[in-house]
């Protein structure tokens, strides 16, 4: 199935090339995949190809062994993809790829309900999982030789609550990520208004007792963190408050606000909305945040001191922008609009501003977009 796209160029390259491409060269083809929710019309993981020279998307047959795959990552050494499966009995699957063929080679419990995010440690021998509904973090040890799970997950419950009773009656882990020195695991908890830090021992693949790395404003509902690619800054998006906080990292695992939170919503917006995804360009100059309900993307310039300045707010061109993916080359931003079931493309200008680019492609129930290779 193909869907034509008007005047779209995706820059950069995936995988090895004979010669390095210029900053604004387009690859012949880009291999992507989309995960999403079966209850919203998805049929498993959807392999995708985009050819910027012909301005067309092409979808392969969905991978039925990956239902309700709301997030995934790739192991840089073994080439395996780890996908979460949301549900009361959460699962994590490992897949090996051969072109558009995805083969599930492992399937293990996340030791919690509704896993929604995963992260690899710096050695590639431990996989952390955020279990949203059960408010816990799980750690899965990986075989160094194969990347496959080598033991059942160990679970580490969060504790805490917040003042927004329908969303914060208890803990809700939403994001996990290892510190640059690999000595700690951060976990962002929407229900507890806290970023926790768990001591991590890479040699034994174990987590210690968590401590608070940051207490977010009460009722703000922190959701995800994006780390600056070159400087000791991090950016925390708050789902319930529709804000982003710029943070200084260090000494790990401490996170210290650099300035008051800034709104992700356009001035004067009065409707209901929930902040969603957050992304930073490879040079660390611009930050992008999505708003679900307002259905917009906010663009911020990142100053040399790490603080944020609003640049633009633009329509997501679809409904409920849950995830964003900056493509290699950094001149295209893809947006996963969950409720409209579309992936929509934006051209990224040198000043960070976005322009809609092409009609997008259908991806029912889409929750995230990944790079295959």
UniProtKB/TrEMBL annotation:
The family database entries (SUPFAM superfamilies) matched by this protein are listed as: C-terminal (heme d1) domain of cytochrome cd1-nitrite reductase (SSF51004)
Superkingdom of origin:
Bacteria
GO molecular function terms attached to this record: 6-phosphogluconolactonase activity
Matching entries from Pfam families are given as: Lactonase
- Keywords in alphabetical order: Carbohydrate metabolism, Glucose metabolism, Signal
Gene3D superfamilies reported for this sequence: YVTN repeat-like/Quinoprotein amine dehydrogenase (2.130.10.10)
> Hey, what's the signal peptide range on this chain?
1-25
Q: Which family does it belong to?
A: Belongs to the cycloisomerase 2 family.
Q: Which PANTHER family does this chain map to?
A: 6-PHOSPHOGLUCONOLACTONASE, 6-PHOSPHOGLUCONOLACTONASE-RELATED
Q: What is this protein called?
A: 6-phosphogluconolactonase
Q: Which organism is it from?
A: Sphingomonas carotinifaciens
Organism phylogeny? Bacteria, Pseudomonadati, Pseudomonadota, Alphaproteobacteria, Sphingomonadales
């Amino acid at each position: 199935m193909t869907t034509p796209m008007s005047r779209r160029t995706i820059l950069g390259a995936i995988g090895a090339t004979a010669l390095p491409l210029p900053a604004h060269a387009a690859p012949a083809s880009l291999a992507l995949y989309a995960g999403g929710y079966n209850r919203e019309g998805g049929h498993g993981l959807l392999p995708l190809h985009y050819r910027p020279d012909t301005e067309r998307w092409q979808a392969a047959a969905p991978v039925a062994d990956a239902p309700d795959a709301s997030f995934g990552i790739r192991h840089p050494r073994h080439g395996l993809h780890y996908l979460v499966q949301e549900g009361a009995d959460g699962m994590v699957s490992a897949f090996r790829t051969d072109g558009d063929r995805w083969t599930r080679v492992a399937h293990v419990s996340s030791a919690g309900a509704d896993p929604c995010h995963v992260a690899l440690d710096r050695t590639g021998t431990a996989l952390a999982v955020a279990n949203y509904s059960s408010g816990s973090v799980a750690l899965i040890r990986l075989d160094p030789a194969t990347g496959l799970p080598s033991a059942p997950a160990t679970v580490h419950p969060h504790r805490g609550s917040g003042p927004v009773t329908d969303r914060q009656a208890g803990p809700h882990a939403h994001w996990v990520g290892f510190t640059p020195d690999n000595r700690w695991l951060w976990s962002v908890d929407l229900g507890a208004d806290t970023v926790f830090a768990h001591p991590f021992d890479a040699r034994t693949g174990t987590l210690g007792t968590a401590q608070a790395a940051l207490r977010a404003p009460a009722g703000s509902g922190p959701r995800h963190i994006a780390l600056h690619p070159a400087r000791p800054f991090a950016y925390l998006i708050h789902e319930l408050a529709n804000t982003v906080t710029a943070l200084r990292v260090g000494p790990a695992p401490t996170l210290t606000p650099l300035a008051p939170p800034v709104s992700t919503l356009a001035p004067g917006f009065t409707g209901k909305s929930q902040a969603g995804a957050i992304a930073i360009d490879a040079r660390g100059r611009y930050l992008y945040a999505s708003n679900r309900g307002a259905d917009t993307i906010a663009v911020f310039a990142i100053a040399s001191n790490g603080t944020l300045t609003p640049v633009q707010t633009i329509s997501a061109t679809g409904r409920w922008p849950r995830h964003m993916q900056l493509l290699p080359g950094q001149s295209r931003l893809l947006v996963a609009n969950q409720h409209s079931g579309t992936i929509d493309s934006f051209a990224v200008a040198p000043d960070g501003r976005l322009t809609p680019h092409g009609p997008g492609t259908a991806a029912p129930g889409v929750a995230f977009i990944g790079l295959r290779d």
